[in-house]
Amino acid sequence: MIHTHAYAMLQPLAESMKAQHLKELFAQDSERFKPFHLEKEGLLFDFSKQKINTEIIDELLNLATEQQLDTWIERLFNGDKINHTENRAAWHTALRDVSSPNPEVAKQWRKMESLVNQVHQKQFRGYSGKPILDIINIGVGGSDLGPLMVTHALDKDKHEHAPDVHFVSTLDAQQLHKLLKRLDPATTLFVVASKSFATIDTLSLADTAKEWIEAHAPNQEVVMNHFVGISTNPTKMSKWGILLRHQLIFWEWVGGRFSLWSTIGFSIALRLGMQGYNDMLAGAHAMDQHFKQTPFKQNIPVLLGLIGVWNTNFLNLSAQAILPYDSRLKYFASYLEQLEMESNGKRTKRDGTAITYRTCPILWGEVGPNAQHAFYQLLHQGTERVMSDFILFSQGVSQPDRDRDRENYHHNLNIANCLAQSRAMMSGDANEDLHKDYPGDQVSNTLLLKKLDAYHLGMLVALYEHKVFVQSVIWDINPFDQWGVELGKKLAVDIFEHIKAQSVDDLDSSTANLLKNIWKQRHEN
Ligand code: F6P
Q: Which residues pair with 403 in a beta bridge?
């Protein structure tokens, strides 16, 4: 990136832009919204509150061309092995192309649909012959966050015969124990979701779940009626005991954090029904087509990605806030934390040499109105410059007629707050008393969607996936591996062995003394 012509052109532009306040840009052009927004089927992207001008946008587009973004997009959609450190494709886009599915994908869809129908039609029965009423999805990272985020967001659109769907991911088993205390084992189905089927978090929880069913089932033969497995590794699923008819497969070319589009979406389909699940795929596919076919200048993921690069590498911002103004998107920021930071939180280029520029910013977020009463203080008056994405829906949740006025009242309040915050961050409010001074000049995007349904959520998630891909191309990163998570897992195995042996031999003094104190405190009142 650094050796491109566009990079050299952008640097002086950044210096002059740093000296300008955002509100001056609005004062200079009262129609600023016009050139700096894009629209596609119920999704409007307003980037007018960014410190950009047309010259900067043109140079950012040149940067994308110099980094051969077009070739990379083609390789992504062709299913080339662009995840070169694992010698795999990253072909999640193929999973949303329902019109021309690959036969292996279609076979798994049919199997998933049949299992979903069995549950909905009360034909999926547990050890006592009673139908399944509760699903517990056991998985972590990509095998948890996507289905958790989507089922929470779209709960009002649940299928009329949907079972209750619960998610457990934490290795301390507290989420699981809480559920086991109140659910009936005879009517509970566990979905063990793990791409590798080797993650200790998931397998340890699955073992505990199995013990629970074993303790209640009349005999061993019926225990596995309570488990469905989802993985790329059928051998490991079989070894653990998952029945062949309860195994859903996906493939190495689907990255964990992109796997909600695969059979990992089983919990989504159970809750929303196949129609809802397919609508989500259709929304994502529409965004894929837009990304693939639209000239870069009108391409929403391309612009979203390039503006992030501009803020990170030229305006030196290192934090990104995700602020959805809809409580149904409670888990959206957590979902994006994995998508963005596990993909682009890297310091090595594709060719294996060290990166000398900034890459993925620290990303966090919260439902906007709650965040206003928590961390917006820092956004308005802190010393950190932060880029924010506001996400807003034009239509609220429809309620029965008698609640309409009340609903409109809350929805309008919500809209007013979202627009007020991005406006305040842009313009600020000068005051001689510095305690009450708002400097403003904090940049933001607003993504305005028509409504929160499966289709638009599919579009939104695919938009962020492609944004991440665009940035990875500019930064010359492979966004599809995650070697950075391995060391901690390896050391955990070693420390677990020390705990079992009650030994601190060869450990550093901090770890050794923390362990000794843990052992001491465990026996105190
Ligand atoms: O440790 C990180 C990670 O590998 C993620 O990339 C992945 O989504 C998660 O763990 C869960 O992995 P699996 O689905 O293989 O259990």
A: none
Instruction: Examine the fold and report which residue of 241, 275, 309 is the final residue of a domain before the chain moves on.
Output: 275
Give 143 Cα–ligand 1 centroid separation in angstroms: 7
pLDDT of residue 98: 84
Q: What is the pLDDT of residues 413-430, one digit of tens each?
A: 999 999 999 999 999 999
Structural domain harbouring 500: 485-522
DSSP 311-339: IIIIS---EEEEEESSGGGTTHHHHHIII
Based on the fold, state whether residues 301 and 258 are members of the same structural domain: no
Tell me if 195 CB under 6 Å of ligand 1: yes
Report the half-sphere exposure of 200 (CA within 13 A, side-chain side).
Answer: 9
Whether the per-residue pLDDT at 302 is higher than 80: the answer is yes
Q: What's the CA gap between 474 and 44, in Å, rounded?
A: 24
Q: Probe ligand 1: pick from 88, 199, 232, max atoms within 8 Å of CB?
A: 199
Q: Is residue 346 part of a domain?
A: yes
User: Ligand 1 center to residue 479 CA distance, Å?
Assistant: 15
Q: In DSSP terms, which residues pair with 188 in a beta bridge?
A: 134
